[in-house]
Amino acid sequence: MTHRQSGQDLPRAQLLAQRAFATVERFMHIEASSGIILLVAAIIALAWANSPYAPSYFTLWHTHLSIGLGSLSFSQPLHFWINDALMTVFFLVVGMEVKREIHEGSLSDVRQAILPIAAAAGGVLVPAIIYITFNPGSPGLNGWAIPTATDIAFAVGLLALLGRSMPSSVRIFLLALAIIDDVVAILIIALFYSEGLDFSGFLIAGLGILMVLALQQIGIGSAYAYVIPGAVLWFGMLKTGAHPTLAGVVLGLMTPVVPVRMHERPLDMLARVVNDLIGRGSAANSNPETMSQQLRQLRLAQRELLPPVVRIQSALHYWVAFAIMPIFALANAGISLDGINLEVDGARWVTLGVITGLVLGKPLGIFGMTWLMVRLGLGTLPRGVSWAGIMLIGLFAGVGFTMSIFIGMLAFNDPNLLSAAKLGVLIGSLIAAILGLICGTILIRKRARMNH
What we know:
Blueprint: H1 12-29, H2 31-49, H3 54-61, E1 64-69, E2 72-77, H4 78-104, H5 110-134, H6 152-161, H7 168-192, H8 200-217, H9 227-240, H10 246-254, H11 266-282, H12 288-303, H13 308-332, H14 347-375, H15 387-397, H16 401-411, H17 415-451
Antiparallel strand pairs: 1-2
Helix pairs in contact: 2-6, 2-13, 4-7, 4-10, 4-13, 5-7, 5-14, 6-7, 6-17, 7-15, 8-9, 9-10, 11-12, 14-15, 14-17, 15-17, 16-17
């Protein structure tokens, strides 16, 4: 008779470790968690950049990191590897989110998508116009796109803080709007913040795309096989003068939404292999080579149960939310307040333009365009979403943070203007978040009174 080991038989250290890992896993599944980690990283960066250890903060990000093979070497500051390489993974996930939404989500039906598309357009145009009115003809004018962006992690995380009393339709509308906002931000980066293009780079990028298509055509489903083609595409985008993170978007949009075709359905293969392994495992002289082959089939079937776009996005989600974005915030949110001169080159108006664009422009643009579309009969509010809910969505969309800082880094070479823009992003995002939480709390209490 076999003895089944119970949890009580496990060593105490192992039990404690399992409980700790379970707690961490629960924390990572809470939508607000990534926003909390991002906020902590930003606070650490600000504190570090304004502490007696500030020189070490700026020295760290300017430390060169090199990769090489033989006589070939590529050396760039750590700041480059974070903003231009690591953030490519972030944009890869964004590209896959867009692909999924177009295939089966809120963007798959034009009638359903028209309202968040229009709202997102208003949320881009009005903040840009407000910023331009603050900075007409000044050196800061190039930062007009900074207040147009929305940080998905923060926006959805803040909404999650309000609890389950908030209708799920509000979250879906906010998520759809934020994804469309990201698409617009990507187009803005490609069209307005890419320097003089070197067309020879497009040949390299095209080679990377052809490599991806060739691997897909012959049925290669392993994500690791696409690392080299992805690197070729990234290097091609870098050489063109366009921002190399756009390679992530291209790869995300190319990720298949259906599993690789197989001779046998993954579920059927799983059932067959498991039954065969159970039979062989009880045999006295099972063949290790045959079992090894069946285990490979088992891993293949397990992998192909989900479409690549779902599988890869799920695998990368935690790395992006809890590592890449916090590292980006740590590297870019550190503003030395002593080093900002708001009296030079209109830096003050850059800061005010960003704050006003995020805090007022975003909600006004989103609410106004949504109202106009409903008024014209071109769309209807989703079930469970009130006009107060639209205003709440507009306020949370004003939390730009990651994407706004990212665009700011592309817009300004002047360190003082860049610091002024970052200051505006941090203050504006904080005000928008606080107003959103206040508005959400009032909305929840009002709903509770109506239900009673």
